[in-house]
Specification:
Strand content: 15-25%
Number of domains: 2
Number of helices: 8
CATH topology of the largest domain: Rossmann fold
Number of strands: 8
Oligomer: single chain
Radius of gyration: 18 Å
CATH superfamily of the largest domain: Alpha/Beta hydrolase fold, catalytic domain
CATH class of the largest domain: Alpha Beta
CATH architecture of the largest domain: 3-Layer(aba) Sandwich
Largest sheet: 8 strands, mixed
Mean pLDDT: 94
Distance between the termini: 40 Å
Length: 292
């Protein structure tokens, strides 16, 4: 595995973890969810190793929401990490990785995201319909308008504090307690996390947001979720079928992996095999015409 440094158009430096660095046929790029990173997400290490063993390149694409908090300032003068992340900046991050893959000379590019990263991929593809991405992957996709019960309670506690910080002109100050006992946010990042309409692009349960972004995506996808993923609220199959039924194409691949949760613990090999099978399937022409 090789680390590559990638700079976005707005001068933020990101670090991608590349498996199969010498291949130039197919590149699978998967971006992280909230706080995700190569050290804590073992399942993506195993995916990378599996793809590399089969002649396919894999990039674990750290976006600016990787890790909890990175206070080392980027060339743009801003820190990174979920603490500071604004959802719309994912357009810069994903474009930087797609451009890297194109510049490296890959013939085929597949773009994926895990958890909150899946919402970013949907948003990016809806805004870049002519880009050279042939297929996409959604791993553990979430309805950002419907948090789990314990997270909803935490959000309720923090929202008045964030709004008060906004009134006081302290949007970039840290809130005094972590969200879900997990991650500290600035008031600005927390309000963006709760209220940004662009991230509400998979409204499976919440009816907050709409399916317009997904319905603009011309590529076919692979949707994978663990049977016990708490964000599926007891029915991962229904969760994925709802996404499929609201997409532009209804022939996306759906895979529920039994006896695992949001990060596929214990079933990493099965996830890797599903992604490998999808990546090896024949690549369809990009953006076919209506008469094709």
């Amino acid at each position: 595995m090789k680390i590559v440094e990638i700079e976005t158009a707005d001068k933020v430096k990101l670090f991608g973890c590349v498996y199969g660095e010498n291949f130039r046929d197919t590149c699978v790029i998967v971006t992280n969810g909230t706080c995700g990173n190569i050290f804590e997400n073992k399942f993506l290490q195993i995916v990378g190793e599996k793809l590399e063993q089969n002649g396919i390149s894999f990039v674990y694409a750290h976006n600016r929401g990787a890790f909890h908090r990175m206070d080392t300032k980027t060339p743009a003068g801003t820190p990174t990490g979920t603490t500071y992340e604004l959802f719309d900046d994912c357009l810069f991050d994903l474009q930087a990785y797609v451009d890297w893959a194109k510049n490296e000379g890959f013939k085929h590019i597949i773009l994926g995201g895990h958890s909150y990263g899946a919402n970013k991929v949907v948003y990016y593809l809806s805004q870049n319909q002519s880009e050279k991405v042939e297929k996409y992957i959604l791993l553990s996709p979430t309805d950002t308008g419907r948090l789990k019960d314990h997270e909803q309670k935490s959000a309720t506690q923090l929202l008045p504090l964030a709004l008060e910080f906004e009134k006081q002109g302290k949007l970039d100050d840290l809130l005094p307690m972590p969200f879900d006992n997990f991650n500290l946010f600035t008031a600005r990042a927390f309000l963006d996390f709760l209220e940004n309409p662009h991230s509400r692009n998979l409204p499976i349960y919440s009816q907050q947001g709409d399916w317009k972004q997904l319905q603009q995506i011309s590529q076919t996808g692979l949707f994978v979720m663990g049977e016990k993923d708490g964000f599926a609220f007891g029915d991962a199959k229904h969760h994925l079928e709802t996404i499929n039924n609201n997409s532009k194409h209804k022939n996306n691949k759906i895979k529920v992996i039994e006896n695992c949760g949001h990060t596929f613990s214990g079933k990493e090999e099965e996830l890797a095999e599903a992604i490998l099978t999808f990546a090896k399937q024949p690549h369809l022409p990009l953006h076919p015409t209506k008469n094709a």
